[in-house]
Design brief:
It is a single chain. The chain has one helix and 40 strands. The termini are far apart. The protein is about 5% helix and about 45% strand. The protein has two domains: about 120 residues, Immunoglobulin-like (Sandwich); about 280 residues, Pectate Lyase C-like, CATH 2.160.20.
């Protein structure tokens, strides 16, 4: 008899799971009430986002309809459990199961120079009930350039952002002037090639920004989102001021010496951050930098094959992040390069003054790496710097510098991805008033330095 009861119970629950619940009290929920998309450029589609519809009943649930409220005119597109459309009917969800709804958005062209809001909703109808999931996105018009070569004297302003697809090239003898507040977003296939001259001149409140074009939450902070800025052989007289270069594969790469008396690249009050490989890379070239932050890159500053370099009041620091493991010295210098098995050496002159060269504890012993080969002229000197190194550093001179003293940055929280390289909260930091006077009297925040400047890019 007990076996009959068991099988009857088994048959009952099996039939129950195969039947549909029709009661208006049937339970259904979604894991979001609003699906939000970050800024989406016009004519460029978003990434796909999704939410789930859960049937928590012990019987099947039939959705009579899942409908995109805006219909075919909606900027949003919908796919329900593998079926695309604006209205999808009679969708079955097994007992205690769920289905996915995938959504994309394409922002239409607009006359607005400001971001505009795109709204719609998805209606889920079942057993006489309706459940609404709101959809929201910000659309943004932009100037779109694809595989573009610039000639002559060109100016970009901050009226609209620039979105670069396939790459951009400043031709030999051409100059691109980028004004304060301009934002340049580059696709993964879009290197910024400079054969002429680039002048990107921002302000503290309106920096020039170079970044990747994926602005949705899962991608907007990923390193290696775009290739980087390449100052090639014929390029000269480049100037970056109050510019931010972030999330690139390489920040800037400059190669070969300048053909003028000015440096190949002059960098003033700039930020290079979250870059997969080198933040600043120089190959037998001239780079002068002041009051700049080069932070959390795979190799912050990498200078090889000789050249002429000057870094004044710069903070060059790396910590392990959720994206990049700190495993290379923050400063790598060499007067040589290996090409097809042959080592070439050229003269090297490098001067670092009032700088911080620091890295996450326990991952890199020596944050300065210097390679010297051959008999070419070689001069590397550090004046009033704070640096981390387990070993003594050969082939360099140090003047009034501090070794292995914690700079006491304001806030470093790796788990929350917070990296604040100020030190306003730490008046006893060893870098306070520890520098020597230089011609550069304004820090990265445009704060005026006194006669005893602090070391690093910020003045307390």
């Amino acid at each position: 008899m007990k076996y009959l009861i068991f099988f009857a119970t088994l048959i009952f629950f099996s039939c129950k799971k195969d039947s549909f619940i029709t009661s208006a009290d049937a339970s259904l929920y979604t894991n979001v009430d609003t699906l939000f998309f970050d800024t989406v450029f016009t004519t460029v589609g978003s990434v796909t986002q999704s939410f789930k519809i859960f049937n928590t009943n012990n019987e099947k649930l039939r959705l009579s309809q899942v409908k995109l409220s805006g219909g075919i005119t909606s900027p949003f597109k919908m796919n329900v459990n593998g079926t695309s459309g604006t209205e999808i009917n009679n969708i079955e969800i097994n007992a205690n199961d769920s289905i996915y709804v995938f959504v994309q958005v394409n922002a239409p062209m607009s006359d607005s120079t400001l971001p505009f809001i795109l709204n719609d909703s998805i209606q889920i109808s079942y057993n006489g009930n309706k459940k609404i999931v709101q959809l929201q996105a910000y659309g943004q018009n932009a100037v779109f350039l694809k595989n573009k070569k610039l000639t002559g004297n060109v100016g970009w302003n901050n009226k609209l952002p620039y979105v670069i697809l396939g790459g951009i090239q400043i031709d030999t003898n051409a100059t691109l002037n980028i004004s304060a507040g301009t934002k340049i977003f580059l696709h993964a296939d879009a290197p910024f090639l400079v054969d002429g001259t680039l002048k990107a001149i921002g302000t503290k409140d309106q920096p020039v920004i170079f970044s990747g074009d994926r602005l949705d939450a899962d991608y907007k902070s990923l390193p290696a989102s775009w290739p980087g800025i390449f100052f090639r052989n014929t390029s000269e007289n480049n100037y970056l001021k109050h510019s931010i270069i972030k999330n690139a594969y390489q920040g800037i790469i400059a190669q070969n010496l300048s053909t003028t008396t000015a440096p190949k690249v002059t960098i003033s009050q700039c930020i290079f951050d979250n870059i997969y490989d080198a933040g600043i890379s120089g190959i037998n070239t001239n780079i002068y930098a002041d009051n700049s932050l080069i932070s959390n890159c795979g190799s912050n500053v990498q200078l090889q094959a000789g050249g002429d370099y000057r870094f004044i009041n710069c903070t060059i620091a790396s910590y392990n992040t959720i994206y990049i493991v700190h495993k290379n010295p923050v400063l790598q210098l060499s007067n040589s390069i290996n090409q097809n098995g042959t080592v070439f050496t050229t003269p090297l002159k490098a001067f670092f003054q009032n700088c911080i060269l620091w890295g996450d504890g326990g991952t890199v012993d020596n944050e300065i790496s210097i390679g010297k080969q051959g008999t070419s002229p070689f001069s590397v000197s550090f004046d009033h710097v704070l640096y981390k190194s387990k070993d003594d550093i050969a082939n360099a001179s140090f003047i009034s510098s501090m070794k292995n003293e914690n700079p006491m940055f304001d806030s470093i929280n790796i788990s929350k991805n917070i990296f604040d390289f100020h030190f306003n909260n730490n008046p006893t930091s060893p870098i306070v008033n520890a520098g020597t006077a230089t011609p550069f009297i304004y820090d990265l925040d445009d704060k005026k330095r006194d006669g005893n400047p602090d070391i690093g890019c910020y003045e307390r």
